[in-house]
């Protein structure tokens, strides 16, 4: 759906008049999984598909939320802006508006909002962060608030915590809000220091494989991993004062791992700390043009997520196994929170068609699910379109 079609939909619902249009992208994380809420490094890039927000102030004391992706819509009055409503989709934009209100920025009048997204739901490509960020950027601009972009990122993360109940790290919102076209973000999730690294993949494509086994971050498994990482920190604290696992080097962990009595908790910590090292090494490899080394580190990332962090599952493992059988695949791993969702693979140009055909056929034969594939372009972060 193009911008003019979206505007017609807005006018059909809310009436004629000027309308502003904003966009925030989904993201794919090339490497660095489940490190963000542990104060480690991640390496995501924005995609060219995402979520659009059309917005216009109204003369009411309420916000009207509607979406072209789902049927249910709602009108929320000013006195109810800081409380989530059940498990509805509009809790994501509502949660962002609540963050403005909590900062003392109560709007003088309401607004009509219409959303449309082309990020596949449940694919693990961060449709929720795109929805949060597009709301934050739109509200900040339309109401002439003065929040810096990094602050909007933090507000999006808090909306996810408070209104969706998912104790996520900051990577998804940061990538959606801050990324540049044709670059990936090398982000320190503890300090929020970051570097825009050019993604130079001469003769190689990024191929996303959607397992069509939707991931469910709100199932409790994600929050359980967060708790297990905190338990690892508590076990290590008496021997080395740390607040997050990301403060430990790989050598530190090797010397301290026997202080973690719980074997499962030890495995969780091993993944996080080894993944932080892999992410650093992968960024160095990309800068040096060593794509084969980058792919090897991607493979190691998936294996660690499968064996130590246990967040992959049959569908993701099957997709990765089939991908690695294809000549011309440099590396393949799950991406996102896990428990379903998508894989990301680096595939040589001449192998892309065979990859999609053969991996798709074999994956469906083994799982009974029909996958979808996207040859990804690295897009721009949140911005106003018109």
UniProtKB/TrEMBL annotation:
For the ligand (substrate), the binding residues are 33-36, 222
Checking InterPro entries in the record gives: Galactokinase, Galactokinase_bac, Galactokinase_CS, GalKase_N, GHMP_kinase_C_dom, GHMP_kinase_C_sf, GHMP_kinase_N_dom, GHMP_knse_ATP-bd_CS
* Positions with a binding annotation for Mg(2+): 128, 160
Q: Name one GO biological process term.
A: galactose metabolic process
Query: Which top class of enzyme applies to this chain?
Result: transferase
Keyword Manganese attached: no
Q: In which pathway does it act?
A: Carbohydrate metabolism; galactose metabolism
Give yes or no: UniProt keyword Transferase.
Answer: yes
Please provide, alphabetically and separated by semicolons, the GO molecular function terms listed in this UniProt record: ATP binding; galactokinase activity; magnesium ion binding
Q: Which reaction does it catalyse?
A: alpha-D-galactose + ATP = alpha-D-galactose 1-phosphate + ADP + H(+)
EC annotation?
2.7.1.6
The GO cellular component terms are:
cytosol
Active-site residues from the entry? 172
Question: What PANTHER family would the database entry show?
Answer: GALACTOKINASE-RELATED, MEVALONATE KINASE/GALACTOKINASE
Name assigned to this protein: Galactokinase
Q: Which organism is it from?
A: Prolixibacter bellariivorans
Underlying gene: galK
């Amino acid at each position: 759906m193009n911008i003019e079609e979206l505007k017609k939909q807005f006018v059909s619902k809310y009436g004629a008049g000027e309308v502003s249009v904003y966009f925030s992208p989904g993201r794919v994380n090339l490497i660095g999984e489940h490190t963000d809420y542990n104060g480690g490094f991640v390496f995501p890039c924005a995609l060219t598909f995402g979520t659009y927000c059309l917005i216009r102030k109204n003369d009411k004391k309420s916000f009207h939320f509607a979406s072209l992706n789902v049927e249910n819509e709602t009108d929320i009055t000013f006195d109810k802006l800081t409380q989530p409503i059940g498990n509805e989709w509009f809790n994501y934009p509502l949660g962002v508006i609540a963050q403005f209100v909590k900062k003392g920025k109560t709007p003088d009048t309401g607004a009509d909002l219409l959303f449309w997204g082309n990020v596949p739901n449940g694919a693990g490509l961060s449709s929720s962060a795109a929805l949060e960020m597009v709301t934050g950027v739109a509200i900040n601009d339309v109401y002439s608030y003065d929040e810096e972009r990094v602050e909007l990122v933090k507000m999006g993360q808090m909306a996810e915590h408070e209104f969706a109940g998912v104790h996520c790290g900051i990577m998804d919102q940061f990538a959606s809000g801050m990324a540049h076209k044709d670059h990936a973000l090398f982000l320190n999730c503890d300090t929020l220091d970051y570097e825009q690294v050019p993604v130079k993949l001469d003769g190689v494509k990024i191929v996303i494989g959607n397992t069509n086994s939707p991931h469910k971050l709100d199932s409790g498994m994600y929050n359980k991993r967060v708790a297990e990482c905190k338990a690892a920190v508590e076990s290590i604290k008496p021997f080395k004062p740390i607040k997050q696992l990301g403060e430990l080097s790989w050598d530190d962990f090797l010397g301290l791992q026997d202080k973690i009595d719980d074997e499962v908790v030890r495995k969780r910590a091993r993944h996080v700390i080894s993944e932080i090292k892999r992410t650093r090494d992968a960024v160095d490899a990309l800068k040096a043009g060593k794509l084969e080394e980058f792919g090897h580190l991607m493979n190691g990332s998936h294996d660690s997520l499968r064996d130590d962090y246990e967040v992959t599952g049959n569908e993701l493992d099957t997709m990765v196994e089939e991908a690695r059988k294809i000549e011309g695949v440099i590396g393949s791993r799950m991406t996102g929170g896990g428990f379903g969702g998508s894989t990301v693979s680096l595939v040589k140009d001449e192998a892309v068609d065979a990859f999609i055909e053969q991996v798709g056929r074999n994956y469906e034969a083994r799982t009974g699910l029909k996958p979808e594939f996207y040859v990804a372009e690295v897009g721009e972060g949140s911005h106003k379109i018109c």
